[in-house]
Amino acid sequence: MRLIRTENYAEMSLEAGKIIIDKIHSNPGLTLGLATGSTPKGVYDYLSQDHKVNGTSYHQVKSINLDEYIGLKVQDPNSYHYFMGQNLFNHLDFHENHTHIPNGAAGDLEQECLRYEQLIKELGGVDLQILGIGQNGHIGFNEPGTPFSSQTHIVTLAKNTREANSRFFNSLEDVPTQAITMGIASILESKEILLLASGERKAEALLKFMNGEISEEFPASALKHHQNVTVIADRDALKYI
Ligand code: GLP
Hints:
The protein has helices spanning 9-26, 41-54, 80-87, 109-122, 159-165, 184-188, 203-211, and strands spanning 2-6, 31-34, 62-65, 67-69, 99-100, 128-131, 153-156, 178-181, 192-197, 229-234. The chain is of the alpha/beta class. It has a single domain, classed as Rossmann fold, CATH 3.40.50. It has a seven-stranded parallel sheet, covered by helices on one side. The protein has a three-stranded antiparallel sheet with strand order 4-8-7, with helices on one face. α1 (9-26) packs across α2. The structure holds 2-amino-2-deoxy-6-O-phosphono-alpha-D-glucopyranose.
């Protein structure tokens, strides 16, 4: 595992952005695994800015998002579909059929999980996966206790995840109780992984991740089984390391 220490959030975003852009230049048909949340927003701004100024093209790039809430319509401002449109897709030249996010409003959710897992395989797997980390160590929406062998599945969100994400909603009651997420095994199949973390809020999770045991009780620890993980984290997130 490689660690890139940065001074702050802006520098973390820049370092991650540069790696992604380099990969796209060397492989314009890359499959990018994308994440939501506050953490990757700065990276997405950097990619949008670079596209505008330097013209890096995403026309052949495919994207696969990690997760989506169950029960929110695609156009709901809290859905990850909406988030990705606002923060990334509307600013780049992705082909509209090349961006993929689980459908949390599907009639048959079990079938949707199977479809999504199959889709990842059809696209040849994720070349470069961007990940954030939850305060409880979740990756995607894989909460503590999720088997490392899991594929795309339906999850019941942990109480502290709903509390953490309630900052985006009007109230805690409005935060969905379930989501569809790529599983831990699906994530580990990615050829390369960038794990991003910023701020003191993530310091304990990073400490556990870097120094703790590999355990299903701490989902991010599964990444230690992966051969090509780069952690990009800022000074506040690394304050115990
Ligand atoms: C969310 C997402 C994760 C994300 C994490 C951290 O619940 N499902 O993919 O990495 O929590 O979010 P944030 O970056 O806002 O701290």
